[in-house]
Amino acid sequence: MTPFVKLAADEPASRKTVARMCYDDSALYFAVRAEDPDMKAVADLLDKSQANPWATDHIELFIDLSHDHNSYYQFVANAKGQRWQARHTTKALFSQPPDSWRCEWTAVGKTDAQGWTLEVAIPYTCFDLRPQIQVGDVLGVNICRDDPRTKDPSAWAFGYGAFHTPQAFGDVTGFAADLKPYRFELQSIAWRQGSVQAAMRNHTGADAHVKAVFTAHLAEGRRQQAEAAITSSAGRDCDAAAAMPLREDGTHQVSLQLVDPKGRVRFASQPTEVRILGQSILDLVGAEFDFYTKETDARVRCFVEASKARCETLTLSCWLEQDGRRLGEPSARRPTPGVNEWPMRIADLAHGAYVLKAALVERGQPLIEKAKTFRKLPPAKHEVRISQWGRYLVCDGEPVFWYGFYDNLSRGDDERWVEALKLMQGANCNAVLNYIGGKAEHEKVGWALDQAHAHGIKMWVHLGWMLSYWIEKYKGRTDRYANDEEALAALRQEVLAHKDHPALLGWCTLDEPGNRPTLFTKEYTEKYYRLIKELDPHHPCMFSHLTRVGESSIYGGATDLALIPFLERGGRYDQLFWEFWDAGLPLATNSPCFGALGSACREPTPSEQRVRMYKSLILGARGLCIYTFRCASVKTWDEIAQVGRELRQLAPVLLTADDRLRVDVTPASEDVFVLLKAFKGKHFLLAVNAGPKPVEAVFRLVDAPIIGKLTPLFATPPPTRIDLAAKTLHVRLSAQSTAIYDIAPVER
């Protein structure tokens, strides 16, 4: 493979470089001879190089395995054997940064008086060989040389001024290696209950008996390994699991190799991040509800992430505390892997707040302790509780997935409010967040609640005017309160007057307090939250809404649930969601439709509106609040109504305890989200593709029984393929779409 030419011009390079390439059924091999008249300078740079080859005379190997002029691998090495690699491809094939690609390959170099030599072996396990990766008898290859000392890069194939030009790579013909033995596909890898688990598929065309070798990369360069022997049938899914007690808190990189009986590595996965924290061993969900009134018994739930064998060494104890005092003796039981539930007597508890504590002890040594709170209250005419097991609202004993709009709907013309309620009722909405500003509007709250009740709609009542009347923005208003005494009296009167109204869903305190953090401080918001809860402890409080990452630590103690803005794509919104989720709060999302007639912003399309709502409920939101009323687009409005119809049917499924049922998704995508729920002997799978391109996805229902019958719901296309025994669905998700399936098990 010679001559090498200059990068900038298709003419011979100033320094001679010669390369050779060959292959066998294990790897690609390269040998490069690089001549240089000043080997002392080359050696000096090699001596100074500490980590990677970039600061020295080095060789860069570019391999377009599929010869598609689009995706390629880059392997870089120098005479010292220092290496670097990357994968350049589409987001659909590899969504991580190119230089995060990891693989095991070798590079050995040697210097002499006239130049240096490099020998490289790249096993086929360095390449992605899933079925969609087609490899023929022609490879795209370029071999390049660069040296920061001479600044005179060269290449075997002229790249028109750049190395990264796959369309200009040279053609290497006659490639005929048998790659079938390397065609395994990793679907997922995870750590659970003291073991590492992987799901994979065999695309080799033959049954395979292999050893699965898991490696966890720990702190300070340490490694922990576990092995399991598996038999994988051709064309079928298989599982591998091995005991690996990762007891160090932190995020670990875990990878998988498959080794055949002759010791040859046939597959090597990319490292997967596995997050191990103390709560991974014990996650105390707590009592079923945030407060109790008439019940004599409550139920407690926790998750224990330990294997059956380890559970035999554990004791799970539980007790109540009030004002720092332990009430009675702890109960003790042997935990089981996964969900643990048990009853708790509360009939004799006095009214007040309680701390429920649970602890794990291993062989007599305390391991971990967790705490959750609940309240015992006198009965009320109407109660809206929070299910702590599923993070949803329960209105007078009935679970509610609340769905509706947020706007200044009762301001001004009374007919506007009534007409809005009729339209929302027709769009299958069941809730509204009514922003109320000014003393005159607050005098109409009772009437607004009556009208909402008449239309079957629950209402969040906004108290923000009483708590923010004094800010600069409102100083010109004639209907503002004169002082704190008048505003506080109005707040007390309003809460006490309407707390027993059947249409009341809850109270809103402030609108986006994070916009004025110096005014609406943690202390200020918690003070008025406590006041409202004293006046009405039977309804939830929230802000409308919380918009900034980091606000859970400021306002988390002044709200019972988090209403947050949410779009279908965007790291900030996902980060905001998980921040409040990790804080233990129920979530509702605000997906804007702007009311385009009064806004410069573009309205969402029907598909955008659909996927942003479904994505949030798949993540765990159990309330959807659309801002504002209403969109101008008839098609988007019709889509909002259609989602409302679907939610009415899905609500009983969604409003159940979170059992954390697992679904493996292949290929991994930042735009595909799935939820598996069990309900009345069946399972329901909800999936969304939030991205702008179609996705061919494979869903493996890890925690579901063998599929007996599958029914697509709501005009969902049927899967392109179903493997009933393997519990696997092959689904084509259109751009910005949802798929929902009703799955019945095999009848026994």
Radius of gyration: 31 Å
Q: Please state the second-level CATH architecture of the largest domain.
A: Alpha-Beta Barrel
The proportion of residues in beta strands is 35-45%
Low-confidence stretches: none
Which of globular, elongated, flat, extended, rod-shaped describes the shape?
elongated
Instruction: Give a short account of the largest sheet.
Output: 8 strands, parallel
- Full CATH superfamily name of the largest domain: Glycosidases
Q: What is the tally of beta strands?
A: 46
Structural class: alpha+beta
Number of domains: 5
Cα(first) to Cα(last) distance is: 65 Å
Task: From the 3D structure, determine the CATH topology of the largest domain.
Answer: TIM Barrel
CATH class of the largest domain: Alpha Beta
Q: What's the helix count?
A: 12
